[in-house]
Amino acid sequence: MNRIKTLHRAAMDHADTAIAAQLNGDKNQALQYFRKAYEMESQAAYVLAGDSKAEPTRSVLLRSAASLALDCNLTLEAEKLICTALTGNPPAAIAEELRDLLEQVNFQRHLELRGITLHDDEFQMSIAGKAIGYGIAPTDVFLDRVEKTETLLYRTAERKQNKPYRDKGRREKRLQESLELYMTVPRAASFAVTFKVGGNEQINMPGTSSLSEEIIDELLECLDIFNRGNEAELKAHINEDAYYRNFIGLVKSLAPDGETVKVVGFTTLRRGKVKKVSLMARNSELSPKELQHQSEKEERVQVSGILKMADSRKKGTDQIEIIDTSNTHHTIIVPSGMMSDIVKPLWERQVLVTGIRQGKKINLRDIQPLDSKDHDSP
Q: pLDDT under 50 in the chain at which residues?
């Protein structure tokens, strides 16, 4: 047992080092230490793998080793560890966590291209979860994410071209034509489609659009940084507040709810190398940085109700009104970057608002739908 404890503690130390490297943007060092952590944790786990009486320690170690295997992109090893754990008698809560991990393993396979050739101006989106079957998904769950992905592409393109953030008005016609989004027939990979980015003249000319490739790569890079929680690095990419708020809000809407949609992933192919980004479940809480900079006098609040009114007549004074179940009206101030793409699509819906109270009004930090079919069982 002492050997198991020694291996486990060393594995956790390596995992902590890997996470720190990941937050600093050093992917190679992170992978190196995740691999060391996996090797030690799997050694500890396999010591108890055949001892069904060693629960819950047995299944906890196997689950931890499987999670680290996924961090190392060792999908097959993760699957073996999970199946070994489930063949024992793990406690119900741990068994459920193991099944969730197995879904992630299966989803990693779905993110693989499976013989599909992606060109420089194409990328694949896959979704998986309780609401999604093999090659079938509810239209609202899927189409809403298609719309959010399209908006993220255009906002990324506008930002990369140094255009001021556009609170209102239509997209520039020339840019819209250059980045027009096309979608293939859905494939049976839980549910996966390929998006092609480019104008009509490029449909039969794969890989000819350098703008498309640049925007796709920038979008996936920002999604990857968001996933790693590195706020400083993300702000280095998106250094204008309105664009930053817009990106965060759109990604939270695009991300899984953690229940019926558990994973949303994107795949590209560059010079023979596959890049995969799997979004984590959305979170309506304020970030640690936001909480750190919050003044002691500032009051963090959450309000749920129907979004009934939005007023954006005066520049810089956008606000909405939420009516809760007790018929109380709450005025919410909406910062630049959130009204058109994030707030407006939620009009007349039940929402949860997170913000900071300022007098009788609330400064919006996050808004999420509460009536989304993502939360319904199929």
A: 200-209, 286, 291, 373-378
Predicted local distance difference test score (pLDDT) of residue 25: 73
Q: How far apart are the first and last CA of the chain?
A: 45
| 84, 60 Cβ separation under 8 angstroms | no
Helix axes 92-111, 75-86, angle to 10 degrees: 150
pTM recorded for the entire structure: 0.74
Burial class for 343, CB neighbours closer than 10 Å (0-12, 13-18, 19+): buried
pLDDT of residue 128: 83
Q: Tokens standing for 85?
A: 């754990």
